[in-house]
Automatic annotation (TrEMBL):
One of its GO terms (cellular component) is periplasmic space. Residues 1-20 form the signal peptide. The complex is composed of two ATP-binding proteins (UgpC), two transmembrane proteins (UgpA and UgpE) and a solute-binding protein (UgpB). Pfam families: SBP_bac_8. InterPro entries: Bact_solute-bd_prot1 (IPR050490), SBP (IPR006059). It comes from Marispirochaeta aestuarii. CDD domains: PBP2_UgpB (cd14748). It comes from the Bacteria. Coiled coil: none annotated. Belongs to the bacterial solute-binding protein 1 family. Keywords: Signal, Transport. This is sn-glycerol-3-phosphate-binding periplasmic protein UgpB.
Length: 452
């Protein structure tokens, strides 16, 4: 069975290590030929960032085209990560895949084995990339067996957002958001009593991502074989153990007790509930800092941010979310080089600073973060710094790195279905997680056989 290696045991000696092994090996093409763009070329770029981010990405690409007048980039928003992934697969099968596409971090192993991509390591010699300037947690996530497969773009962690104004009205310290599961319950009971117009004190959308992050906080493996990172592909789901049960007992228990507002899947309803004052606290991606700040400001309320709450005694940390940029195969070398130049530019300092300020996603490069610090950005906008600090303070282990498996999107769907069954009283937490784990294990084994 193929091996998957992102980090080695020696990397655990420091908090955010670079993987060992130096620069990735170059392919024969990268070593033997020099590729240049001598005639104008046109490439396509499909991404999964909607709303105001569509214009933000277009602006970044426009700047790229100004600096590279012989490269034309046709940009298209293609829906959610899942939508984009499915459209790319269909387009590749039809022979008209975009040169560059954007998908979530959990699609990494699937894409690396898909047969439809040109890994970065195969062509990066044409336009070398300084990987040492990338933050290690970001870089390591998208590295397999010491080789870079995709270009980090939008990286995030979940945050606790809270309405400071409501906290003051309830007699809570507006500078001290809840830090633990128990404190969330304690704060929620106070808010429910003191702020009667709330539908519920806290909310977040139905997404397994939060469950995964809580699992990382508990430093517990999500799947076997060293969380899928140190040896063979994982063959068994472990998220139905004591750690997973503890998380969902807390999560679904708050819903049962009227402390949590169930807003369903998607990323709009919990933001709207927070912005309208239906809830006083919400968990969401750091990429929502800009949007949620604006929503509360419209109502004259002040917003605070904090780390996501952890189970009492948990010693783990968060892992990155977000997505990366992939290059498809079966294109002329000149077009592949143009695609490489595009993804390299999008991950460079100035575009990353612009992206961070417009969204809240933290920059993927240390050098971009240094630019923000030098200009005093975080002094004036402390809420934009919270996610970055949360990541830096997270200890690095194979569990906090996040799991790696080929059927991650399906696993997420199964976990979310299980949570809904608990909400509805159809299953206990253990029954729901056992069912999701059993189905995930079956799918993992089937996927492993296909890629052997």
């Amino acid at each position: 069975m193929k091996n998957v290696l992102l980090v080695t045991c020696s990397l655990l000696l420091i908090v955010f290590p670079l993987f060992s092994g130096g620069q990735p090996e170059q392919t024969a093409a990268g070593e033997k030929e020099t590729v240049e763009i001598t005639e104008p070329v046109t490439i396509q770029f499909w991404h999964a960032m909607g709303g105001s981010r569509i214009d933000l990405i277009q602006g970044i690409v426009d700047d790229f085209m100004k600096a590279n007048p012989n490269i034309k980039v046709e940009v298209q928003y293609t829906g959610s990560y899942n939508d984009t992934l499915n459209k790319v697969k269909a387009a590749s099968k039809a022979g008209n895949a975009p040169h560059v596409f954007h998908i979530y971090e959990i699609g990494t192993l699937q894409m690396a084995n898909s047969g439809i991509v040109t890994p970065i390591y195969e062509i990066e010699a044409w336009d070398p990339i300084d990987w040492e300037t990338f933050f290690s947690p970001v870089r390591n996530y998208y590295t397999i067996n010491g080789k870079h497969y995709s270009m980090p773009f939008n990286s995030s962690t979940p945050l606790m957002y809270y309405n400071k104004t409501f906290f003051e009205q309830a007699g809570l310290d507006p500078e001290k958001p809840p830090k633990t599961f128990e404190e969330v319950i304690e704060y929620s009971k106070i808010l429910k009593q003191k702020i009667p117009q709330l539908k519920a004190p806290i909310s977040w959308n139905l997404n397994s991502w939060y469950f995964e992050e809580f699992h990382c906080l508990m430093d517990a493996p999500f799947v076997n074989n060293d969380n899928g990172r140190m040896g063979e592909y994982p063959t068994r789901a472990l998220f139905n153990g004591q750690a997973g049960q503890r998380i969902l007992e807390w999560w679904t228990g708050m819903e049962r007790d009227g402390l949590f507002l169930d807003v369903g899947p998607g990323w709009a309803n919990h933001r709207a509930a927070f912005g309208s004052g239906e809830v006083a606290m919400v968990m969401s991606s750091t990429s929502d800092v800009n949007q949620l700040t604006g929503l509360l400001k419209e109502k004259g309320w002040e917003m605070g941010t904090g780390y996501i709450p952890r189970p009492e005694g948990a010693r783990g940390g968060v892992t990155i979310g977000g997505g990366s940029l992939w290059i498809t195969n079966n294109h002329p070398n000149e077009e592949l080089l143009a695609a490489l130049k595009l993804v390299k530019y999008i991950s460079s300092d100035e575009p990353q600073v612009r992206w961070h300020k417009g969204t809240g996603y933290f920059p993927v490069r240390e050098t971009a973060m240094e630019m923000l610090e030098a200009e005093g950005w975080f002094d004036e906008n402390p809420n934009f710094r919270t996610a970055f600090d949360q990541l830096l303070e997270s200890p690095y282990t194979l569990n906090t790195a996040g799991s790696l498996m080929g059927v991650f999107p399906e696993a997420r769907s199964l976990i979310e279905t299980g949570i809904q069954k608990v909400y509805a009283g159809e299953m206990t937490v253990k029954e729901a997680l056992d069912e999701a784990a059993e189905k995930t294990t079956k799918s993992m084994l089937e996927w492993n056989e296909l890629v052997e």
